[in-house]
Amino acid sequence: MKTKQATLTGSLIMLLLITTVLGVSILHYGVLPHIPIVLATIITAVYGLMLRYSWKDMEQSMVKGISYGIPAILILSLIGILIGVWALNGTVPTITFYGLQVLSPDFFLVTAVIITAVVATMTGSSLSAMGTIGVSLMGVAYGMGISPEMTAGAIVSGAIFGDKLSPLSDTTNLAAATAKVDVFAHIRHMLWTSIPAFLIGLIIFVFIGFTNNRGGADTSQVDEMARTMQSEFMITPVTLLSPLLIIGLAARRVKPVPSLAIGLVAAVLTTFYTAPGAGLGDIMTAAHEGYTADTGMESIDSLLSLGGLQSMLSGISLIIVALGFGGLFRGIGIAHALIDSLKQVLRKKGNVISSTVVSCFGVNAVIGEQYLSIILPGQMLEDSYRSAGLHPKNLSRTLEDAGSVLHPLIPWGVIGAIVMTTLDVGMGYVFFTFTSLVTPFITLFYAYTGWTLTPLDQDTESIVDTGGEKENTS
Q: Where are the transmembrane segments (predicted)?
């Protein structure tokens, strides 16, 4: 039976219906996005049946969509295992301890950005950085008489920057997987937007620090954290061997899975020296279930109780259902019908990128879910980047710049709600989250000037081969 083509009207109705289901489920009922995406997939499948697609064809579209996420799933699994071992062997405590040593009352806001950036980079989690070190920094800010909103903005700015450039971050790997590009190539390409935005934010915070200097900081809470970590863990540069190996291998363009595997071996070996009381069984338990800290200090225990393969399963399952939905969304022609209506606009490279920015922000604003703000625009606009002669890493960079980076600016989004609850601030923090505020303007500047944009026929080795479907770039 011959299938019908998805019409623009039908596709717009489907888009509105799916957005409503996702928005009501996530925003009103406050549920995780997994089941709402399954419901959206069912609705999409019904429309596919109306277009006379067979279940076998739709199933193949979903399997194809999920297959694109297999590299990311492998990477996230290794990351969960690695972080659990890092927490056990003292890598995370060492990095955090060194970060706390640079706290300066005269440059508190700048220091807050840097500390949270370091913690987020090494743990791959902006939420961990904000919910632990960030909480302690808020206490110092109150002691200094610095605005809580300014401090929260500095904390979020640093955490988002660190998370964005961390090969351990779920959203970083998700953006690379969605665009089908090597994660390290993706990170290197993001430096063009991330570094300028980060430096602009630091300059603004330096200016704010000089004009609002209160002096007399009470750093006792942070000092206590440092003392606790020093007494409970072996704080030594030896623990940095594993992350330095991963960074070095990434610089040499070694693929993520072998890089992480080598880093994991190094982490396990150093554990026998840095945590002499831990046996092989303890290491395997931390790798699977994560490490549970028991120092007696709540903020430290919260920071260091992390990692493990199990900690990644929720994110992995979300990637599977979201990519399956995206594969079906494209497979029955809805995405093509929507994009075809914009072909005249999307012929220019700048318009393709600006459309991505608008789409990512729109998903964030309507649904408040950063994973979907990466996956949905990425799958809908992927072909438009290739048609415009743009390398997939331009797409992956824009998905991060407008998806995960803009997400904290949505107070009703996941991170926004956590920031206001955990850091005990109002929506005013948004105006001081300079990393998020500045990044999209840099992205759009590059989009219309052509600076830093990589053509499709360059760096082809960084394009991930998804089962022989790698497009001809000659």
A: 33-53, 65-87, 107-140, 190-211, 231-250, 257-275, 312-339, 429-448
Q: Which segments of 252-297 does DSSP mark as H helices, in order? A: 256-274, 280-289
Q: By C-alpha distance, which of 245, 234, 243, 240 is closest to 274?
A: 234
Give me the helices (H) in 68-182, please. 70-89, 91-101, 108-123, 126-131, 133-144, 148-164, 170-179
Contacts 24+ apart (CB under 8 A), 202-208: 202/110, 202/113, 204/434, 205/109, 205/110, 205/113, 205/154, 205/434, 206/107, 206/109, 206/110, 208/109, 208/150
Strand partners, 181: 463
DSSP tag of 159: H
Q: Using an 8 Å Cβ cutoff, are 233 and 93 in contact?
A: yes
Tell me: the pLDDT tens digits for 109-149?
898 899 889 878 877 778 767 765 776 677 567 655 678 89
For residues 216 and 231, give the distance between their C-alpha atoms in angstroms, rounded to a whole number. 27
SS3 content of the chain, % helix, strand, coil (to 5): 75, 0, 25
Cα–chain-centroid distance for residue 154? Answer: 18
Distance from chain centroid for Cα 245: 22
Average confidence (pLDDT) over 178-195: 92
Nearest to 104 by CA among 94, 96, 114: 114
- Burial category of 251 from C-beta neighbours within 10 Å (exposed 0-12, middle 13-18, buried 19 and up): exposed
Q: Distance between CA atoms of 107 and 202, rounded to whole angstroms?
A: 10
Q: Contact 197/442 with Cβ under 8 angstroms?
A: yes
Residue 51: what pLDDT? 92
Write the burial class of residue 343 (CB in 10 Å: 0-12 exposed, 13-18 middle, 19+ buried): exposed
Encode pLDDT of 407-448 as tens digits.
888 876 667 777 876 677 888 899 999 999 999 999 999 999
Residue 56 in 3-state DSSP? helix
- Nearest partner of 74 among 386, 472, 464, 406, judged by Cα: 464
| Cα–Cα distance, 182 to 177 (Å, whole number) | 8
Euclidean distance between CA atoms 466 and 155, whole angstroms = 38
Burial environment of residue 421 by CB neighbours within 10 A (0 to 12, 13 to 18, 19 or more): exposed
Nearest to 72 by CA among 379, 370, 317: 317
- 238, two tokens: 């030896």
**Chain segment 34-86, per-residue pLDDT in tens:** 898 899 899 999 999 999 999 999 999 999 878 867 776 887 788 789 888 98
Torsion of CA 218, 219, 221, 226, to 10 degrees: -170
Lowest mean pLDDT across 207-211, 259-263, 316-320, 409-413 = 409-413
- For residue 377, what pLDDT band results from cuts at 50, 70 and 90? confident
β-bridge partners, 287: none
Tokens 């697609």, residue located: 53
Rounded distance between C-alpha atoms, residue 14 and residue 7, angstroms: 10
